[in-house]
Design brief:
The protein contains ten helices and ten strands. It is α/β, with parallel strands linked by helices and 254 residues long. It has one domain: Rossmann fold (3-Layer(aba) Sandwich). The strands form three sheets. It has a five-stranded parallel beta sheet. It has a three-stranded antiparallel beta sheet with strand order 5-6-7. Helix 5 runs parallel beside helix 9 and helix 8 crosses helix 9. The chain binds 2'-deoxycytidine-5'-monophosphate. 2'-deoxycytidine-5'-monophosphate binds next to helix 3, helix 5 and helix 9.
Length: 254
């Protein structure tokens, strides 16, 4: 396991962004963005990382990549989940993000294969909460995330970033929006990508994941005490970004 971890950390490529003025003179902090699925965490986290010249890490992509691995190996399907088979193969799962300048963020690679598109498919969404509930999976991924963020200057989004991965993060944001609003956004995204899904299926998936993510034993999704909550049901992307930038500026000047 140790050797595998080293290999992962050694190969994580995040070329430095061009730091935007005036932020590059300021001290680097850790920014944790947690919240329910499809709250637009990754959109705002990417925007923020670009603005500040920070590294962006989408931890959901890591859980999704492990799920894709389990699906391909048929360790998970319907109601069947062979957790032990997956746990035994965790040392064989190599994850890395490789920065793609064309899209402006690090894309997910599973054992040297780019899986950015595959991990966003509905099938992965259906099983990911079950995989993310396995303590051994969480332990491996949390260790990798902590390593990626040890130099600070990072915006990380997920479910347990402010509570477990970086409880000392200087800025913690907790994003919420109604399940209907989130399902609508996700439905639009999937339809635009050509996936044949109904709004009802997406809403059911969002509600089921909310339930599994908030009730699992290991690191359930909860708002950290010191997190700032943003309900973006009625916020525009610009409005939301400005709000978060204000929070960042307040944190830095404290
Ligand atoms: O952010 P997302 O929807 O891509 O995340 C996919 C799943 O991974 C989500 O249902 C919960 C899980 N997850 C987690 O348990 N912890 C994280 N830090 C990130 C995601």
């Amino acid at each position: 396991m140790e050797g595998v971890k080293k290999a992962i950390f050694g190969t994580c490529l995040f070329p430095a962004f061009q730091p935007a003025q005036p932020y590059f003179m300021t001290k680097k902090i850790t920014i944790a963005i947690d919240g329910f699925s499809s709250t637009g965490k990754s959109t705002v986290a990417k925007q923020l990382a670009k603005e500040l010249g920070y590294v962006y890490v989408d931890t959901g992509a890591m859980y999704r990549a492990v799920t894709l691995y389990a699906l391909r190996k048929k360790y998970i399907f319907d109601d069947h989940f062979d957790k032990n088979a997956l746990i035994a193969e965790l040392p064989l799962i190599r994850l890395k993000f490789i920065f793609n300048p064309e899209v402006g963020f690090g894309e997910m690679y599973l054992n040297d294969e780019k899986v950015e598109k595959e991990i966003r498919q509905m099938e992965v969404s259906q099983y990911v909460s079950k995989v993310a509930a396995v303590p051994e999976v969480r332990e491996m991924l949390v260790a990798q995330q902590q390593e990626m963020g040890k130099e600070k200057g990072i915006v990380m989004d997920g479910r347990d970033i402010g509570t477990v991965v970086f409880p000392e993060a200087e800025l913690k944001i907790f994003m919420t929006a109604s399940a209907q609003e989130r399902a609508q956004r996700r439905y639009k995204e999937l339809s635009e990508r050509g996936e044949e899904v109904t709004y009802k299926e997406v809403l059911e998936n969002v509600e089921e994941r909310d339930h599994l993510d908030t009730t699992r034993k290991d690191s359930p999704l909860v708002k950290a005490k010191d997190a700032k909550e943003i309900d973006n049901s009625h916020l525009t992307l610009t409005g939301q970004f400005e709000k978060i930038l204000e929070l960042y500026n307040a944190t830095i000047s404290n």
